[in-house]
Structure to design on (573 residues):
């Protein structure tokens, strides 16, 4: 800041504090609602946390909302398995594919490269019906495999690792070959340890991506056993003429936000790195 | 760019790319080509026979008032989301860049809503603006606004725009702040010595230097608003009232899974693919330019 005008400094901080408050406001209201009884929420608009926090969260986790048929604890486990499966799946297959494309020369190499590139242009939303049909034909409806496999192809992760491998000095590979080492030894002993920071950054981004998947799980899960938490919350809202259990819905919503938000706050450095690098 | 030193092996590289390629073929290329194929077919009422109708499905779409309406709704929605999210984020980022010492603290406070899923964002704003239980809906009615997004299409649109833009502000903020912090201080100091005030410095120096970031974010925000906002719409309005918020991705889902119109849904998918491809190509052209910049 060049000018030291007090009014300008005041204005700067006022805008920022207001911005931070507006960003946090919906989440704060949700949290407050999750600590009151349904009656308190429907009668007035409480602005301070109430005394029913433990009760509401325990009910959500162990009993579950009336019209969903699964407890929030079960749905959280499902969301977690899906998110972790997608994260590790994407990282693993992308590392291998990038290794092949950078460190080998073989016919069809560029064909494969472009094939992977095309996946960037085909989000689930634009090919939902035929992809659903493929999953159905493979017997993947209502299964963990169906939740995970169709989502693990990733052009961005492959490109990120390719970029990174290109910067690894050729001498390392040369020395390894002179010592008579195999390609896979090179991959596991040298390349993988060197990629640690890229993997950590991708882990954060992909975990959030996996946890927040909505359309695909909505299509392929009809059995409550496989509901993810986001699907569950949407089901809780669909009560028709009945009264939605807002206190339980709000507690579940807070629980649904918690894992990705904690990951962003505690792994902020990796998060920022992942965001800026995957978008290149 | 190619590596000079490579391994020699005939089979291993195929084994290594196989998992990625199999997934891509089975879940991306095959369904996309099915969509292309179905988009030129017409199924009879019982789904037993289909005949080749070439571009009739597309012609039907562009003659259908409902589809053109959905296209207009999508354009209004996408540009409003991008405009709102970019303006708010730029304002906050410029301020955070000025608040040198506390910039990191503000950064943490502003970026975390990005971790919230679009559908959850929809639920949060639904709770605030719900006509029967929502706090903000109550205050709006108190000050005389007849707020009811379940009946009023314009209000429903405003609601989905706010909910969709809210989490995108965090994303844009992060990139704007990085862009601002990369601008050399000497440029700004030189302008200040020449007597330019903060407002003038921003428009003549900072903003032009930030323009690659702005352009990149416009494309990313449009892609987000076009394709990642299904959850927001599904949780808040389900495309209603009276199709006022029926954006294209919601319509594809609705026509394919609820109304079971295969040919029409496939033709819509193909049009959406053309849109993503166009946007991706624009984004990559721009990145190439930035490399030489």
């Amino acid at each position: 800041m060049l000018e030291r005008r007090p009014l300008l400094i005041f204005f700067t901080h006022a805008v920022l504090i207001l911005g931070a408050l507006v960003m946090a406001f919906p989440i704060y209201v949700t949290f407050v609602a999750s600590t009151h009884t349904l009656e308190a929420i429907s009668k007035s608009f409480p602005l301070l946390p109430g005394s029913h926090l433990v009760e509401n969260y325990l009910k959500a986790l162990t009993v579950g909302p009336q019209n969903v048929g699964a407890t929030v604890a079960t749905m959280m486990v499902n969301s977690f398995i899906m998110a972790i499966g997608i994260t590790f799946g994407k990282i693993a297959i992308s590392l291998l594919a990038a290794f092949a494309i950078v460190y080998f020369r073989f016919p069809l190499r560029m064909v494969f490269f472009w094939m992977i590139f095309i996946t960037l242009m085909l989000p689930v939303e634009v090919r939902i019906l035929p992809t659903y049909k493929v999953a159905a034909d493979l017997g993947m409806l209502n299964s963990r495999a169906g939740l995970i496999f169709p989502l693990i192809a990733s052009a961005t992760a492959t490109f990120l690792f390719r970029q990174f491998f290109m910067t690894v000095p050729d001498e390392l590979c040369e020395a390894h070959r002179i010592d008579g080492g195999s390609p896979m030894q090179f991959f596991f002993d040298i390349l993988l340890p060197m990629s640690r920071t890229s993997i950590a950054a991708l882990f954060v981004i992909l975990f959030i991506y996996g946890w927040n998947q909505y359309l695909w799980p909505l299509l392929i899960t009809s059995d409550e056993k496989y509901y993810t938490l986001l699907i569950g919350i949407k089901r809780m809202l669909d009560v028709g003429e009945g009264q939605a259990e807002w206190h339980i819905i709000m507690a579940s919503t807070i629980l649904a936000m918690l894992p990705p938000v904690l990951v962003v706050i505690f792994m902020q450095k990796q998060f920022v790195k992942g965001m800026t690098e995957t978008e290149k | 760019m190619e590596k000079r030193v490579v391994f020699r092996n005939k089979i291993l590289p195929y084994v290594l790319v196989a998992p990625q390629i199999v997934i891509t073929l089975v879940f991306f290329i095959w369904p996309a080509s099915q969509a292309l194929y179905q988009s030129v077919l017409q199924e009879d009422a019982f789904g037993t026979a289909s005949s080749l109708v070439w571009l009739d499905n597309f012609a039907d779409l562009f003659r259908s008032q409902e589809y053109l309406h959905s296209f207009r709704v999508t354009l209004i929605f996408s540009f409003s989301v991008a405009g709102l999210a970019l303006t708010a984020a730029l304002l906050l980022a410029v301020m955070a860049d000025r608040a040198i010492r506390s910039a990191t603290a503000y950064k943490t406070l502003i970026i975390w809503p990005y971790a919230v899923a679009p559908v959850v964002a929809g639920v949060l704003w639904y709770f605030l603006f719900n006509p029967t239980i929502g706090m903000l809906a109550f205050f709006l009615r108190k000050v005389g606004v007849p707020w009811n997004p379940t009946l009023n299409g314009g209000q429903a649109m405003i609601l989905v725009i706010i909910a969709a833009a809210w989490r995108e502000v965090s994303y844009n903020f992060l990139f704007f702040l990085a862009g601002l912090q990369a601008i050399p201080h000497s440029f700004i100091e030189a302008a200040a010595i020449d007597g330019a005030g903060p407002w003038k410095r921003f428009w003549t120096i900072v903003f032009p230097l930030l323009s690659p970031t702005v352009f990149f974010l416009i494309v990313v925000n449009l892609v987000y608003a076009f394709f990642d906002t299904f959850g927001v719409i599904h949780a808040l309005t389900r495309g209603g009232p009276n199709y006022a918020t029926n954006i294209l991705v919601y319509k594809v889902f609705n026509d394919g899974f609820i109304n079971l119109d295969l040919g029409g849904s496939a033709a819509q998918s193909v049009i959406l693919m053309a849109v993503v491809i166009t946007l991706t190509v624009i984004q990559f052209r721009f990145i190439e330019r930035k490399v030489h910049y």
About this structure: The mean pLDDT of chain A is 85. The two ends of chain A are 30 Å apart (CA to CA). The first helix of chain A runs from residue 6 to 33.
